[in-house]
Amino acid sequence: MKRRLDTFALAILILVTLCSSTFMVSMKSNEDEKDQSVCQKTSLNNEEIKLELLLDEGIFHFVHGHWPKANSSFFKYILNEPKTTEDKIEALYFYAKSLFSSENYLMASEVQRNLLTFLDDEDERFEEILWDTALVSLAINEEDAIRILHSISMDNESQNRAAAQQLLKLLQA
Questions:
Q1: Whether 45 and 130 share a structural domain
Q2: CA 34, CA 21: separation in Å to the nearest integer?
Q3: Confidence bin at 49 (pLDDT 50/70/90)
Q4: In which domain, by residue range, is 4 found?
């Protein structure tokens, strides 16, 4: 969270600096090429700042339990971020958690499965998202849920192993 606040402050500082430098350059320069280049760079940076603000806004709403607003911010961020960056993976992670919390299980399942393709087994979020995927699958497709829970129950290093085994026993009873 502190990293997000630092990023937000830095984004504002960059925006102010770029705007003032763009103004100074356009005042001093009569060459269209230079003006165009500065404007393009400013435009790119403004887009990056808007994306960062969307992510920050989504996290803010997530922390405060405003699921529809968080979902909207994360969705816009994911839609507008063309590259698969760590920030996009973070947005997918929070989007999946937010959809799950707002009981939009079908969409949460899709986002979780998408997110799992970006995470490797060693990522600390992988196990949590896999568990959430199993829980969401209970509401959508019990057969999928059993398959995922079985996979978790067979993993000796999984924190959710015992819970998965217990849940499987309940489902088979």
A1: no
A2: 12
A3: confident
A4: 1-64
Look at the chain and report how many structural domains it folds into: 2
| CATH assignment of the domain containing 136 | 1.25.40.10
24-28 average pLDDT score: 45
Residues 6+ apart with CB under 8 A from 134: 145, 148, 149, 152, 164, 167
- pTM higher than 0.85: no
pLDDT at 10: 44
Please tell me the predicted confidence (pLDDT) of residue 172.
87
The size of the chain, in residues, is 173
